[in-house]
Hints:
By secondary structure, the chain is mainly α. It has one domain. The chain is built from eight helices and no strands. The protein has helices spanning 2-15, 19-30, 36-47, 52-77, 82-85, 104-119, 124-140, 146-178. Helix 4 packs antiparallel against helix 6 (104-119) and helix 7 packs antiparallel against helix 8. It is elongated, with a radius of gyration of 18 Å. It starts with a helix and ends with a helix. The relative contact order is 0.18.
Amino acid sequence: MQTMELEILNWIQQHLRCGFLDVVMPALSWTANHGELWILLALILLLRRRQRQYGAAMACGLTLDVISCNLILKPLVGRVRPFAVNPAVELLIEAPLDASFPSGHTAASFAAVFALKTAGSPLWKPALAVAAAMAFSRLYLYVHWPSDVLAGALLGALMGWSGAKLAEKLNNTVKKRAAGR
């Protein structure tokens, strides 16, 4: 499996690497180094009364994601990153120090997308385009295996959906208490 994944990563390096993407992919990846892009969007939505439920869904989804991905799975699995297996590749970003599996950038991105979609926000469509580009950037930058990115997308989708459902339940509980039930 690892051989096939290396072939995919090497194909990307040989056939898609170019000056334009060498500038764009590190910049895109940087926007979510700690989930900043998605956290900022969630905060903006939380501040807007009409879109508060979308921000709450994202906040819950991103919280579930960081716990499951960064605090549980990455340390538990401890997978080595592809650039450590193939050190001949020139990295365009500083080498990440944490484990490779699953991709945290991808997981956070897809948690945001699925939280927005589950909560009914039309923002999920542009967010999906950004999330897909973010996932590809992690392969382009040679810092994740394809299976890391796939697992990150699946985990993020589950955490985003779960976060939206959790936010909905919390909102309903608050409304019931406010109504005196």
